[in-house]
């Protein structure tokens, strides 16, 4: 099992993508400062966002026309 079942697939997808971001970026949090840890979290969040909502797809949406 990759995540604890929450019955929230979107939340589970986010968690998997976020943790994958840590793995891809080679983050190791032992012995680092709080600022470095916060930076790792921001990078993992950006990785998850780009994985789940790719910019190249979002950029072509005409958001002003969506009702």
From TrEMBL:
Q: Where is this region: Disordered?
A: 1-36
- The residue range of the signal peptide is none
Q: Which InterPro entries match?
A: IrrE_HExxH
Q: Could you tell me which Pfam families the record lists for this protein?
A: Peptidase_M78
The segment(s) forming the IrrE N-terminal-like domain are 7-58
Q: Biased-composition ranges for Basic and acidic residues?
A: 19-36
Q: What is this protein called?
A: IrrE N-terminal-like domain-containing protein
